[in-house]
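Researcher: Good morning. I'm working through a list of sequences from a screen, and I'd like to move beyond sequence-only analysis. For each chain I'm collecting a predicted structure so we can compare shapes side by side. This is the next one on the list. No need for commentary yet; just the structure.
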Amino acid sequence: MERLLIDFSQVYGQNGTQSAARSVYNTQAARLRDSDKTQETPRISFEDMLSDSIKNVNNLQLEAEKKVRDMALGDVDDISEVVLASSRADTALRLVMEMRNKFLDAYQALSRITG
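Model: Good morning. Structure tokens for this chain:
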């Protein structure tokens, strides 16, 4: 089975720190490397994947709030950092909300079928 790995080597947050996307990539890549050594398919439960996604969205929201607070206090040199952090958090939240809506639609469709 051929695996697709996306190179996030150019994705960095402010001050050279790794972004949330890069840390998720590193975690998944490490799991795949470990599974190649043992010849096992990595098993990531849907619950774990969803939980990690929600945690990442929460971290992006907290980072955006911190940037806005820093801007209000005058500690931000470049306002584009604040805009970018807020945009990331907004996009991630919208994606999670759309996923939730799709899950609810699927659940309601299944309940109509079995009902």
